[in-house]
């Protein structure tokens, strides 16, 4: 057990604060094997006796009742503290209970030390609770961040999703263009807004060529079409439809990513500590699409 007042720091780069190791054993440990609709809760006292083991729905009222029934000084330990585990963490803290995280690798290794081989929610919750009680150094803190930092994290996560969708759409758009007119695919720069506007407005090489649009990009598309044999009309129309749709979605993603970046910066404006923490944890926050 860690000495009184000794500081421990998680080795997970997504946790940004140092937390205090417990100086004494908690009165009890409540291990939660978290799930989407329900968790399995295993409550053991400091001597390792099982006080309760049962499922609990992932709903605020049920979680509040569970934490209210736990002895004072209980440590709640979860195997996931984001997403499906976030409500349990918030409600445990609201009940005044300490919260810790047992990382997946530590839980997996610990599971082999306990009797039984079947992987069930009940057994997993017991493993979490007993490991937390017997090997407290395996635990990581679940530090609370400020409201602005949490909001910035959420927006950054959304931007990551937008970037991933845009990358998928770019790959699909290039595949469509390559199948129809490799010369146009080679000429197109999908990071150029004017190319995206041209593609979103008229479609592929032959859609642009017959549109009468002007400018160097339209001329490049016309040259590509002139140097290639046009597919049958039905295929040209199918290509145009796909190209217009994908180019428009990529443009929307660029707009959304820019808006998310601005909102994130606004949340952190003037808070140098949060900015440093944020960019340490989310190093890819403003990576280009």
Topology (elements, then pairings):
Layout (H helix, E strand, L loop, with lengths): L6 E3 L8 E3 L7 E6 L4 E8 L4 E8 L2 H10 L4 E5 L7 H9 L3 E4 L2 H8 L9 H14 L5 E2 L5 H34 L1 H6 L5 H10 L2 H5 L6 H11 L6 H36 L3 H10 L8
Parallel strand pairs: 3-6, 6-7
Antiparallel strand pairs: 1-2, 3-4, 4-5, 7-8
Helix pairs in contact: 1-2, 5-10, 7-10
What does this structure look like?
It is a single chain. This protein is of the alpha/beta class. The protein has 2 domains: 7-141, Ribonuclease H-like superfamily/Ribonuclease H (Nucleotidyltransferase, domain 5, 2-Layer Sandwich), CATH 3.30.420.10; 147-281, Helix Hairpins. Mean pLDDT is 84; it is low at 1-21. The chain has helices at 60-69, 86-94, 104-111, 121-134, 147-180, 182-187, 193-202, 205-209, 216-226, 233-268, 272-281; strands at residues 7-9, 18-20, 28-33, 38-45, 50-57, 74-78, 98-101, 140-141. Helix 1 (60-69) crosses helix 2 and helix 7 (193-202) packs across helix 10. The protein starts with 6 loop residues before the first strand and ends in an 8-residue tail after the last helix. The chain contains 11 helices and 8 strands. The protein is elongated, with a radius of gyration of 27 Å. A 6-stranded mixed beta sheet has the order 5-4-3-6-7-8.
Brief rundown of the structure:
This protein is an alpha/beta fold. Helix content is 53%, strand content 13%. The chain has helices spanning 60-69, 86-94, 104-111, 121-134, 147-180, 182-187, 193-202, 205-209, 216-226, 233-268, 272-281; strands at 7-9, 18-20, 28-33, 38-45, 50-57, 74-78, 98-101, 140-141.
